[in-house]
Amino acid sequence: MLSQVLSGQDVKISGSGKGYAGTEMRILTLTDPVTKSLRPFSRITCDKTGSFSVDIPVKGTGTVFIRTGVFNYHLFVTEGREYRIKMSDYIPKPREEEQNPFFEEVRMIPEIINDSLDFNNLVRKFDAEYNQAYNRIADRVAYNIDRGGIPGIIEKLNSLSNPGMPDLFTDFVKFRMIMINMVGSGEYSGRIEDSVMINREFVPGNPAYTDLIEQRFSRYFSSVLNGSLKNEFINAIASSSLSGLREIIYNDGKVSNTELGDYIILLNLFPAWYDGTIPPDIIMKLITSIRDEGNSGYIRDLAGMISERFLTNHSGLPAPGFNLKDESGNERSIASFRGKYILLSFARSDNAAALAEYGILNSWYKKYSVNLQVITILTDSSFTPACTRMKSAGFGWTMLDGSKQDMLEYSYNIKMYPAFILIGPDGKTVTESCSFPSENLEKILSAKITPR
Q: What pTM was computed for the model?
């Protein structure tokens, strides 16, 4: 679902729960179903009764995430609607897990208490049964045991969809059933009705549809490379030909819907950017072609969003800007440091991995101080004591207040602490993700900066 923080009507989300008094919530929105990027919207604090309320601009439909404690609540929302949610009793995240980027929060769809037939409630009930059935079938297929019982497991799910349900949910169930049938029976020519249903209408606003397309086509390029259209695919990629890729997809016979065809191309180009299977310049040419010539406004907008994520903090482009206060209260920006290389890092003052890396950095960075400025953006909730801890530890370079700067971390694509980025004297990114000082960071710097 393509969620934008631009035009559209507000979605109002409110709720309460035991133990939430004074707790912080991070509100994020899903940008699109291909990159699955979570765009920060705001941080809010529950009142003394454990209640909260937030208005979020949404265009059409979208997905909103609420992160608090060990929970990650997610809701499928429609512009102009109001959602009152019931939350589970609050459980704080263990202190030792607060900075663990791999900590898996408990992801759940909360109950919507102001509308029993809300899509979220229907999906929550259906998926509770569906997920168990899916796992049971997947195990039987993987271990080749009691496969004769699979049709019975699937049949029980049909009773969960009753006449009179909203169309969005009815279609959701249909797409989920195609997914589970593919796991249980595989893909074969007899399942013509599935292909007809997938191609009848391109519906990215239904999360089960995008899940199904991902299950069926996320490795589509690899399958083409191993098939009869291998040479045509290689030629289309080599020549950055969007029309060539489209022709391959349609000739393959699985896809006839033109929007879906473009979506499948985007779905496969996105991971190729990171795994290196297709040269970046070819990917950008193809993405640009779809952005300009896509088969719908949705597809063109999606291609634009994907290209933005590709170019986030990309080498050779201007680094994302900021205006943050230093320890003296002065506001600083990238421009205020221009003329030198900037070694920019993100961290918290109590992050053990960051402190260890800074200790190594501290032992040699002054050799390059004539042409290098070291800057650390501290994301602790309280900047002043964090800065004091860093200075007491002997780290004398510039510290900037990055508390609650979620959008800045999003702009720099920060996934974990510490993160190091090298910015050139012209304000452009040199390396979007530097090695750590404990690795070969000094080697990278010495190749560009002459030590004094």
A: 0.89
